[in-house]
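FIELD: query
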Amino acid sequence: LHELAGDLLGPRPPAGVYRYRTSGHERVDRFGIDRAYPAETARVISWRGGCRWRETVPIFTQHTETYDFCAAGTDAADFAYSTSLTYFLVPGVQRFACAPVGRRLLSGQRPGAARRWRCVQGASTSANTTIYVGPETVQTAAGPVATRHLRLITALSGQSSGGAVRELWLDPDGLVVKEERQVSLRVRSTFVGVLTYEERASFLLSGRP
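FIELD: result
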């Protein structure tokens, strides 16, 4: 990551556990699985050495996400992410490495600006577009927070096909203050064949470390 890391420390949230008021569910077509999300979830920010930081989102024991970024310069570079989903006692993990990298905040850009970036794991591809919607104020339990509203659109091909839209309201340090997401995928599994996966969820910051 030497090409990502400059002399200046980039935006990143302080390390610790952040709490979110949560609603939504995920659904798998096999046997009518439909899991309601807990009323509260966490996001854990941890330092990984150098400019590298990780955001871990453990929604369930069977559903964990990680987002790796390099905090250097005027923005944070999203260079890898992974999703771990377990159904029918069969774990499935996809970990993508990104080149070109994403830019978490699109710092210095005007509303409407977009960045296209691509992540790969083996024969699977995640084609991403981040759009800066504009500045917005989000009301939280602790009061109003000035944020940057970004829209992340993802198209997946390979082991999983389909897409996702994540509306993200980010603190100037890159912390997710609010998120609304919609995901619709067809996932190929060696053990149980093709699954249809759907997710609808929202997250609102309710507590800081």
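FIELD: remark
DSSP finds no helices and 13 strands in the chain.
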